[in-house]
């Protein structure tokens, strides 16, 4: 069995993101959401995700988006349900585990859980007309 390396640099982040979104695009549970929102041209979304996760994992400046607001906007077009969040997280964990092993691999999975919880909570708040700031 091949020994997996930990997440160490931007190239690792790009590999993770590319592999993950290839799986997402083909997924029966959440693929349709991404196809409707992003379409066929991923040239903007993928670099944004590279930068986001590089900022999260390595504190590298450069990401300036608002993931909560982005998901609130998605939810206005396609209702984001518990099973969507759960499937996203399942694919994320499996992709990380297939590619990497080590403390950063564990950290990126945990950070994804925390972000998913926060985003789903704030999407629910937005549906109720509450502030998401």
Helix content range: 55-70%
Total strands: the figure is 0
Based on helices, strands and strand pairing, what is the structural class? mainly alpha
* CATH class wording: Mainly Alpha
- Radius of gyration, Cα only, in angstroms? 15 Å
Mean pLDDT: 95
Name the beta content range: under 5%
Helical region count?
A: 6
For the record, give the distance between the C-alpha atoms at the N and C termini, rounded to a whole number: 46 Å
CATH architecture tag: Orthogonal Bundle
List the topology elements.
Blueprint: H1 10-26, H2 31-38, H3 45-58, H4 67-77, H5 82-99, H6 103-127
Helix pairs in contact: 1-2, 1-3, 1-5, 4-6, 5-6
What does this structure look like?
The structure is a single chain. The chain is globular, with a radius of gyration of 15 Å. It is built from 6 helices and no strands. It has helices at about 10-25, 30-40, 45-60, 65-75, 80-100, 105-125. By secondary structure, the chain is an all-alpha fold. The protein has a single domain (about 10-125), classed as Globin-like (Orthogonal Bundle). Helix 5 (about 80-100) runs antiparallel to helix 6 (about 105-125). The termini are far apart.
């Amino acid at each position: 069995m091949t020994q997996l390396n930990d997440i160490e640099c931007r190239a690792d982040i790009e590999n993770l993101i590319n592999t993950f979104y290839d799986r997402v695009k083909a997924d029966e549970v959440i693929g349709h959401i991404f196809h409707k929102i992003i379409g066929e041209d991923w040239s903007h979304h993928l670099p944004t995700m590279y930068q986001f996760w590089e900022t999260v994992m390595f504190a590298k400046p450069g990401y300036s988006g608002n993931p909560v607001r982005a998901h609130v906007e998605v939810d206005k077009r396609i209702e984001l349900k518990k099973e969507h969040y759960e499937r996203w997280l399942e694919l994320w964990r499996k992709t990380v585990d297939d590619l990497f092993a080590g403390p950063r691999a564990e950290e990126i999975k945990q950070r994804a859980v925390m972000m998913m919880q926060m985003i789903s909570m704030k999407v629910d708040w937005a549906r109720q007309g509450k502030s998401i700031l």
